[in-house]
Design goal:
The protein is an alpha+beta fold and 325 residues long. It has helices at residues 2-35, 37-72, 74-81, 88-91, 94-100, 263-274; strands at 102-107, 114-120, 135-140, 146-153, 165-178, 190-194, 218-220, 224-225, 243-244, 255-260, 282-286, 296-299, 311-317. Strands 1, 2, 3, 4, 5, 6, 9, 10, 11, 12 and 13 form an 11-stranded antiparallel β-sheet that branches.
Length: 325
Amino acid sequence: MARGRFILALLLLGCLGLVLDNHFSRLSRLEWGTRDLPALERRTAALEAHLSRLDSAEARLSRLDAEAGLIRDHEAALKVLAYDRGLFRMLMTREVLQKEGIEVLLTGRGADEVSDVRIGSDPSHQRVNWGATPAIGTGGGDNNNRYRSLIKFSDVRSGRLQGGTILAAAMYLYQYDNAAEDDLAAKSTLNLYSVLRPWNEGGGIGYAPRPQESSWMAASDGEREWKEPGCSGAEDCGQEVLASTGPHVYGNADGWVVLPFTDAGTAFLQACFDGAASCDGFLLKSEEESLPNTFTAFRSSEFSGPSHSPFLEIFYRVPRPSGLP
């Protein structure tokens, strides 16, 4: 009997030992898990940040897909381009032009379609005509001399677009030099304004104008003086910018400089083609003309034919005959 109790006691002690051993093992694991808690928290935070980046990337992809769909939609693309005309030429592929019924007009590419002349404010230049020289330009020169240029296209006339609606336009000028001695030319902004008085290019090469030739002082010498020298008066030129380079880096490399037309500029061109406004051309003027050595030179229509002459590129939609899709 006593021996049976002893064996039972040993069995109970063994069971208790197993229970205690399992308990202490769990306590040990809990203690080690507590020690690893900061590392687990760091890994959790890193995982959450990664998930956040994935969500952000997914959102960006969704936006890009939506934008791509917008560009693929030609009508929607045209609405976008109305606010960013700088993109217009790049996206107007032959397929889009044909689908949308859009035509492209290049003005000034034929003989005698461009009249252009630069004028200068220096006292020795105020009554000088440069109409036959191969250069125009704008900006500041030596001795506080300010240069501007007058540009006119004879093929901007009523009926030329056959009732078409202008969607976008730009003027192109071929730069070949500038007088910058530092970085001032890199800060130049060139603007176009409408000229409100008739003027004549003239045939001078740097001498006093003959009758009816233009200069800093006169739109047509002997007939019409500018209300303010340099085509500056409110009766001489419009006060609203019609096209602009924006701040532009010019350097000395040859190449085309583009002045995209603003909404106001497009409306002005539309009125010229519709016969609702007379078009006496444009005044090219630098916002930095009061700064010396900021003169930027462009080829004029007198330079070796029309290949480097100023010209306009105009995108317009032709009315479709009734009944056509």
